Amino acid sequence: MVLCPVLGKLLQKRVVLASASPRRREILSNAGLRFEVVPSRFKEKLDKASFPTPYAYAVETARQKALEVANRMHQKDLRTPDVVIGADTIVTVSGLILEKPVDKQDAYRMLSRLNGKEHSVCTGVAIVHCSSKEGQLDTEVSEFYEETTVKFSDLSEELLWEYIHSGEPMDKAGGYGIQALGGMLVEYIQGDFLNVVGFPLNHFCKKLVELYYPPRREDLRRARQDSIPPVDSFENLSDVEAGHSEPAHGEAGRGWDGPGAGGDQQAGSAPKADGYRTAEPPPFPADLLELIDGFKASKALFTACKLKLFDVLKDEVPQKAVDIASKVDASVCGTERLLDVCATLGLLEKSDRGYRNTESSNLYLVSDGEHSLHDFIMYNDQHTWNLFTHLESAVREGTNQGHGALGRKAQDLFQDGPLQSKEDQLRCVGATHGLAKLTARPAATAFDLSRFSSACDLGGCTGALARELAREYPRLQVTVFDLPDVIEHVSRFQRDGPETARVRFLAGDFFRDSLPRAELYVLSGVLHGWPDDRVHALLRRVSDGAGPGAGLLLVEAVPDAEDREARPGLARCLDALLRPRGRERSLAQYRRLLEQHGFGDVQVAPAGHGLAALLGTRVAP
After folding, report:
1. Cβ–Cβ contacts within 10 Å for residue 179, how many?
2. Which Gene3D superfamilies does this chain map to (predicted)?
């Protein structure tokens, strides 16, 4: 339910949040605002020393974020947004601005500065109203900031490091999140709690009232400046419109109903004879239409990757559609349309000179890049896409649909027997490698593993997690143990580095062959793919091979993981339906599994991206 009509004024508009912050998204969604998320690409490299105050720096950063998104969306032939919201949160202590820590040591330095002291949390917000005239973008920017005082308790070194090892500080200004575990560090706050979380909703609503409903002269005498206007003010907002009060900014007659909109009545809400308006039309279902069309965007990305468009465009120089079409052996008209779609999706940049990759596309979509997801995308195109066309049958029958979608009897490509061809094997290994590269570092740093000198990553595929473990812990020797068909392709995915010498690969089947001896065993993304009997069999083998004091690190996507996202959870739920050999388990269930097989003192930590990590220690039999 929106705070009507303050946020309700935005329901008929295309509102864009220029931030990837899940906290800002949650605050605005809970308030009932409908919006799109288009993360800003503005490089936050403003000279802090050039600003008279910290809040001026935060406001200007928020302004630049919002304007970058407004200009980019306008230039890419998308419908110009009506409103773009930008925000930037900083923490200041003793005049020093603290933003997000770059690593654990940086997080420790930040939290040590805050320990036992008061500090300020400041959020700058920019509201950019946009309109397009004769192809030119016209913007009007409104800005404000909110400041909240926060006091940390006196905290021990042990507690600070325990919090840092939880992984929570790494994406938060000042190195803590008050809405989660970081709340235990805070003794008191003075001011807006949501401002500390990341977005000052109260002040935002006040600003909307100021912009859309400038007060009448007689109202100024009774206006209160320290709260959102009282209920009777909201009830009389339509009277303000009827009174044709002067606009807050700009000139009347704008094409959008924002600052400068004047007192014109909205279309479809003409007054009746008794002065009451007819019912407003239902809001435009932008989110629903986007969801309906979502499969088209996926298929466009799949097709662009299959044609290797992003490989062709990995150089900095823009290229014309006719030249690109020749290089990928496709029609000019079809290639140009696909390029335009990719530009609309934010995968390419389009200018008068032609098309070129975005920074993200160069990083993740070029097929031979270090962090490439190309194989994962191709796996989804060639296998998962077909599998999901059988979703209705899976729902009706509750049975595995692999035989219908993939032409084999209930065989999951990741688990059941040899793959059909070497190409299939390589694609599957590449897909697993691409995902593992994204999640390896949060998993490797979820706990302090420095007490172990040897580790064995069971089912570790190309060794992405093993390399991160070796990089993080210089004395750790890691063995990757996986099937021969997997180990055969490992050399294709190895990069040079000092940690390479401490990672070795051993072929075998962890259900049948002897497990390598190690002080730490790792099972990352393995157990969820197997039914209970196979899970217990594998854990028994690990337990039998682990001596007292040995560790077992388990990394899995769980439905009650603290860092979960709705869409990844949805995908895992449907995967479990279509490939029902394994199943999802809760944190409590995984903890019980470890304890049943002799691993006690189980610790739990978020590992990012909807994952949770559990570390158990083998107790003496």
Report:
1. 16
2. 3.90.950.10, Vaccinia Virus protein VP39, Winged helix-like DNA-binding domain superfamily/Winged helix DNA-binding domain
The DSSP code sequence of 199-223 is --HHHHHHHHHHHHSPPPHHHHTT-
Among 369, 391, 418, residue at a domain's last position: 369
**How many structural domains are present in the chain?**
3
Name 495's Cβ contacts closer than 8 Å, sequence gap at least 6. Answer: 370
Among 139, 129, 121, 140, CA closest to 199: 121
The single residue listed with the structure tokens 């924002």 is 258
CA gap 257, 242 in Å, rounded: 15
Based on the number of CB atoms within 10 Å of its own CB, is 576 exposed (0-12), middle (13-18) or buried (19 or more)?
middle
User: What backbone torsions phi and psi does residue 166 show, to the nearest 5 degrees?
Assistant: -65, -20
527 lies in which domain range? 431-618
- Peptide linkage before 5 cis (omega within 30 of 0): yes
The pair phi, psi for residue 498, each rounded to 5°, is -65, -25
User: Which of 510, 424, 522, 427 is closest to 469 using CA atoms?
Assistant: 522
* Regions of the chain short of the pLDDT cut 50: 1-4, 220, 223-277, 403-419, 560-567, 569-570
Q: Are 228 and 205 in contact (CB under 8 A)?
A: yes
Task: Record the tokens describing residue 185, joined without a space.
Answer: 């560090």
Question: What are 590-615's pLDDT values in tens digits?
Answer: 999 999 999 999 999 888 777 889 99
**Do 554 and 585 touch, CB atoms closer than 8 A?**
no
The answer on 174 and 52 residing in a single domain is yes
User: 616: buried, middle or exposed (CB in 10 Å: 19+, 13-18, 0-12)?
Assistant: buried
Polymer length of the chain: 621
What does pTM read for this prediction? Answer: 0.51
CA distance 174 to 157: 17
Catalytic (active-site) positions:
88
